[in-house]
Every structure is written in structure tokens, then in C-alpha cells.
Design brief:
Elements (H helix, E strand, L loop, with lengths): L16 E4 L6 H4 L12 E7 L1 E2 L2 E2 L12 H8 L1 H4 L10 E8 L5 E3 L3 H7 L8 E8 L4 E6 L5 H7 L9 E5 L5 E4 L5 E3 L3 E8 L5 E4 L15 H7 L9 E2 L10 E6 L6 E7 L3 E4 L6 E5 L4 E5 L2 E5 L4 E4 L5 E5 L6 E7 L1
Antiparallel strand pairs: 1-2, 2-5, 3-4, 5-12, 6-13, 7-10, 7-12, 8-9, 8-11, 10-14, 15-16, 16-23, 17-22, 18-21, 18-23, 19-20, 19-22
Length: about 325
């Protein structure tokens, strides 16, 4: 591996990091045709871009193949991440969530709760985009307007807790904004793209009576969760997806007023010209078709479900898509 000059930076692909969990599913294999490793528990997460201790993404293409994302950030800094970068780890974590069973009911802290809880807590806001869903799959996110704080607390140890939650049928193309402080659970049968702050702080409220891989109940974090839950937040987290088809390219903002990330749903039927302006990298995720990132004599193929990082200093590029089909691409920036 060698570092290239800054003006030679190119679109980067990374090896996925697979995580086995008690609730893992089979849609990574069935829908995305991934060759996932055999583990004692099923694979439930694929960390597509990660800069966490013990889970650092490794470049899989080009002259810098084998370098870690940490190596690149230390070496290139703002040329890779963008002018808003002030140091530290890569600011986002990109995952695929393959839920064979329902995940725990949980909540993440905001900055205020982190300061109060300490304990190395990190704020975490995230977005889910439904790539595929089995019949009957659901998303649970946010409190119902009819659920009081007292009822929620009294129901935490019973099955009635589900009646406190907004629930939605999972529809491919729909997205969900899970702000810090919003209770949530992913239902079984979902394959989601998750874009989140680079944080691994999660407080479980309920695990639905399930046992962990060791045969014992997994730990709950009730006191810490109650410090994080925003009981005044009763808004719907769902951003309804595009249902119509068009013979021209379209861009639909999913998240455009969040200080953590901006996310667009691109519906493409032909070449899409784009450019990084130096302020932020672009993360380009292929949802339903293979795409190609190109510029002049350079091209990088991005498989379905994979994410490509366009360095902030890269400038003009194009997304090439198959002819005669509408291709869905998720673009994420800071």
C-alpha cells in the first residue's frame, strides 16, 4: 500500500465488517447475495464504513488497498473528510441491518444526556432506509400521542409497552429519522441502510423477554434510558418514499435540516453529474442496481448495498446507471 498525492485521491470502497447477533437474519444473503461468514449466531450487521476501535474499515480497491480509514484520515484530513473536519475519528458510521428477529427497544443519548450521564457516552442520531422487507415487517419508532410518560414507565416490564409505540409497515424506499432521545425498535424481516453518528452508545429499555447467546437475559439500562428519552417528542419519524416513476433524474431530500448529516434519495434513469465542493465527502450507496462512479478515465463499480466514499477534494464525478431502469442511490454528506 502507498499513499497517493491529494490530487490523486479516488472513490474508495471498503471491506464490510460482519457482526453476528442473536437477532440476525438472512437478507444480506438472500437479497444482496453477500457471501457472509458462518458464525455461531446469525449475521445481523454489516459495518460498511467504520472508524471504531476494534472495527476499522479497510480499503478494498485501488493503490491504497489495505489502508485503514484511520490511516487515510490521519494522512489526508480535510482533503478526505471536508473543510468542516476538526480532527478525530470519521464522523459517521454506515451499516446494513439484517433483522431476522425484532431488535430490543432502545434509545440513544443527545449531547445534553451524554454530559449528564458521563460514562463515555456519545450522542447518536441516525437514519434508516428500508432496502427490503419481508411481508409483515414493521418499524417501531417514537411514542404515540396517547401514551403518557407515566404509562410508558409503568409498561416497561410488560408486553403493553408495544402499545405505547408508533408502528409502521416496512415499505422499501421509506426512511425513518431516529433522533437522539427517540425510542425505537427494528422489527424482524427488515434489511435497512443505517447512517448514524459515529457512536456505539445504546440503552436498552426492553428485550421482549429474549435470552442472549449465553442463555441469559441481555442487560437493560432503564435508569440511563429514562435520562435520554424525549417524552415531549410525538412527531412521526417516517419519511415516505417515492412511489411514482419518471423518465428523468430526480432528487428527493430525506434529511436536510440535521446538523449531523444530510441525505438525499436519487432516482436515476441516466447519468447523474455531481461534484464534491471541498466541504464534505460524498457517500454513495447503491440500493437496487449496480452503479459506476466515473471521471475521465477512472471508474469504480459499486455493488448493490455497498457504499463508496468520494473524498471531499475529489471534485467533479458522475454516477453511471443501467439503461432502461430506475436506479435508487442514497447520497450522504455532512
Amino acid at each position: 500500500m502507498r499513499f497517493v498525492e491529494k490530487d490523486e485521491l479516488y472513490p474508495l470502497l471498503f471491506d464490510p465488517i460482519y457482526v453476528d447477533v442473536v437477532w440476525g437474519g438472512n437478507l444480506l444473503k438472500e437479497h444482496l447475495k453477500r457471501q457472509t461468514p458462518e458464525r455461531e449466531s446469525p449475521i445481523g450487521e454489516s459495518w460498511e464504513i467504520s472508524d471504531r476501535e476494534g472495527a476499522v474499515s479497510v480499503v478494498s480497491n485501488g493503490p491504497m488497498k489495505g489502508a485503514t480509514i484511520r490511516d487515510l484520515i490521519v494522512h489526508y484530513e480535510k482533503a478526505l473528510v471536508g473543510n468542516v473536519f476538526t480532527g478525530g475519528r470519521f464522523p459517521l458510521l454506515v451499516k446494513l441491518i439484517d433483522a431476522g428477529k425484532r431488535l430490543s427497544l432502545q434509545v440513544h443519548p443527545d449531547e445534553y444526556a451524554c454530559a449528564k450521564l458521563k460514562d463515555n457516552a456519545e450522542p447518536k442520531t441516525e437514519m434508516w432506509y428500508v432496502i427490503s422487507a419481508k411481508q409483515g415487517a414493521k418499524i417501531f419508532a417514537g411514542l404515540k400521542s396517547t401514551c403518557t410518560q407515566r404509562r410508558f414507565i409503568d409498561s416497561m416490564n410488560s408486553t403493553d409497552i408495544e402499545n405505547c409505540l408508533q408502528n409502521f409497515n416496512s415499505v422499501p424506499g421509506d426512511a425513518f429519522f431516529i433522533s437522539a432521545g427517540r425510542v425505537h425498535a427494528i422489527g424482524g424481516g427488515n434489511l435497512l441502510l443505517e447512517i448514524q453518528q459515529n457512536s456505539n452508545t445504546t440503552y436498552r429499555i426492553s428485550d421482549w423477554g429474549r435470552l442472549g447467546s449465553d442463555g441469559k437475559p441481555r442487560a437493560l439500562h432503564i435508569d440511563k434510558a429514562l435520562e435520554c428519552i424525549n417524552f415531549t417528542d410525538r412527531t412521526s419519524p417516517r419519511i415516505t418514499g417515492v412511489s411514482s416513476f419518471s423518465d428523468h433524474n430526480r432528487k428527493f431530500p430525506i434529511i436536510n435540516r440535521c446538523p449531523v448529516f444530510r441525505i438525499d434519495d436519487l432516482r436515476l434513469v441516466e447519468r447523474w453529474p455531481d461534484s464534491t465542493d471541498g466541504n464534505s465527502f460524498h457517500l454513495i450507496t447503491a440500493i437496487n442496481q449496480q452503479i459506476t462512479i466515473s471521471r475521465y478515465d477512472l471508474s469504480v463499480k459499486v455493488e448493490i448495498g455497498s457504499t463508496c466514499m468520494i473524498p471531499a477534494s475529489f471534485g467533479d464525478y458522475s454516477i453511471e446507471v443501467p439503461e432502461g431502469k430506475e436506479t435508487t442511490v442514497i447520497r450522504t454528506t455532512l
